[in-house]
Amino acid sequence: MSWTRLFCCRFASNQVRLALFVLAYNVANFLRRFALPKEVSAWSLSSIQLKLVKIGAKVISHARRTIFQLAEVAVSEALFTKMLARIHGLRHAPG
User: Fold this and answer.
1) Gyration radius of the chain over CA positions
2) Closest CA to 86 of 39, 22, 25
3) Entry pTM
4) Which of 16, 41, 58, 77 is 20 to 30 Å from the Cα of 51, by its Cα?
């Protein structure tokens, strides 16, 4: 795995790099388990990264809404809408 390569000369720098890797892994795993629909829950973390994170998008902001224009090659609009709805459902209840 690429996280085993040590690019820095100092121990503290490598320690921070490893801590960031672990944090990113845990956030991605949390999203996969709790926020993604059943169609996506079987995807590996690498697939999620390639299909959701590393895909180009155009963000258009208007006064009342923000629009993400994604290429539907990796994820369909319906699946992306389900993902956003599930992520939105993770918010704390008021009060």
Assistant:
1) 17
2) 39
3) 0.53
4) 16
